[in-house]
Design the sequence.
């Protein structure tokens, strides 16, 4: 199954360790415009490698990387390691602190049809192309994607618990999450990590675009390399691994925003009636509670009005798609088929590319965009159960794009994974049992 390797990570020079909070950055799609401006204002922030600015962003990232290596802003660790990564946080609305335990390593970039890395949602083509351009230019990864493996015995947890007692970094991030990173260099222990994962499939929780970009880059490089062996750095990808069976995994909702829709509020409500039960609300704050425990229920928010809409249960039989029932019954599939396709008239196959559809994880920002007029209206969604995500992945089918938001997000810049051959090359056989 999954072949993973330790990595010789690049990290910020130890002289910058006390400024690590200022140098790390959130994933680009979870920060506000003001937060981005502050990140870009720091010339050493990792955002300059993960989401570079300028007319030729990939070239800019390459120049930044060359400069940082030359000036020893970032320095490569001497030995490969498994990087243990713990996040201490509170779920929204709860007082008890949780800890999501995991580790960062390299995984072979498997094609989807190999059934080793499983996806659960579709991607947006332009975002994948941007990731490929960046990999071509830099051959470095500044943020790991997030993969899940199932281990009912929690075999690796004791080794991670021991390592985390001697952290490389211990900081608080933009989410108020305590982020702790440590490293394991012991070859015998590393071999146990490799052995456990080689028996597992990996479910991609977050980072579908970055992972698909890595797969495309691997194919491009292997086709242009007459001596391709499969052991080159470009065959691997940086990933953060967590046990899918832990209780500290939570998937938060991602809401949908719509612009430039030709239908009026009244026309939308009229087109909804054959498909949905509609209930007008007095206050938008009622929406979350009313849809929380209801199957196929959503909030529909206009500037001066709000509704709860719920699919008429019998209508699920009219979903004319060649997919299993377990996928048809996912809330996001219902939303994209019956509301976005049937009511708004944006076909399923065009939704990934539609400029009329945007995504917002923050409820307050979502509502304010509608009230401020930058969006015509919004659909509020609820979180998806972990079991449902696992079931969809194992079915071989996918959900619509941006169906899941695993909380908390990983940070960019705690470490960097280079797949350039001069950085990657090492006798990795030493780590096999």
Sequence:
């Amino acid at each position: 199954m999954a072949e993973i390797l330790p990595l010789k990570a690049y990290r910020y020079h130890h002289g910058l360790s006390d400024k690590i909070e200022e140098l790390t950055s959130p994933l680009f799609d979870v920060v506000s415009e003001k937060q981005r401006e502050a990140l870009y204002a720091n010339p050493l922030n990792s955002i300059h490698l993960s989401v570079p600015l300028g007319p030729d962003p990939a070239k800019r990232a390459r120049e930044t990387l060359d400069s940082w290596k030359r000036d020893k802003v970032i320095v490569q660790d001497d030995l490969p390691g498994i990087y243990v990564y713990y996040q201490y946080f509170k779920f929204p609305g709860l007082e008890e602190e949780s800890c999501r335990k995991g580790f960062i390593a390299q995984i072979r970039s498997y094609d989807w049809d190999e059934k080793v890395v499983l996806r659960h949602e579709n991607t947006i083509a332009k975002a994948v192309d941007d990731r490929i351009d960046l990999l071509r230019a830099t051959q470095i990864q500044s943020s790991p994607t997030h993969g899940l493996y199932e281990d009912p015995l929690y075999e690796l947890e004791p080794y991670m618990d021991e390592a985390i007692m001697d952290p490389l970094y211990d900081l608080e991030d933009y989410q108020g999450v305590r982020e702790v990173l440590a490293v394991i260099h012991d070859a015998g222990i590393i071999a146990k990590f490799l052995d456990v994962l080689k028996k597992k499939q990996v479910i991609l929780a977050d980072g579908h675009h970055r992972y698909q970009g890595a797969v495309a880059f691997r194919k491009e490089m292997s086709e242009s390399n007459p001596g391709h062996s499969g052991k080159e750095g470009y065959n691997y990808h940086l990933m953060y691994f967590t046990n899918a069976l832990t209780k500290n995994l939570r998937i938060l909702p991602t809401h949908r925003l719509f612009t430039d829709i030709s239908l009026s509020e009244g026309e939308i409500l009229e087109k909804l009636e054959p498909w949905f039960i509609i209930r007008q609300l007095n206050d938008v704050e009622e929406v979350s509670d009313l849809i929380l425990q209801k199957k196929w229920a959503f909030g529909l928010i206009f500037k001066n009005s709000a509704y709860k809409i719920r699919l008429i249960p019998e209508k699920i039989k009219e979903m004319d798609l060649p997919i299993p029932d377990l996928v048809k019954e996912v809330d996001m599939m219902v939303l994209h088929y019956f509301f976005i396709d049937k009511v708004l008239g944006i076909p399923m196959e065009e939704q990934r590319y539609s400029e009329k559809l945007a995504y917002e994880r923050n409820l307050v920002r979502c509502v304010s965009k509608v009230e401020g007029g930058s969006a015509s209206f919004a659909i509020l969604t609820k979180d998806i159960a972990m079991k449902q995500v696992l079931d969809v992945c194992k079915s071989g089918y996918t959900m619509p794009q941006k169906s899941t938001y695993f909380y908390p997000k990983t940070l960019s810049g705690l470490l960097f994974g280079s797949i350039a051959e001069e950085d990657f090359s090492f006798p990795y056989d030493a780590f096999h049992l």
In short: The radius of gyration is 22 Å.
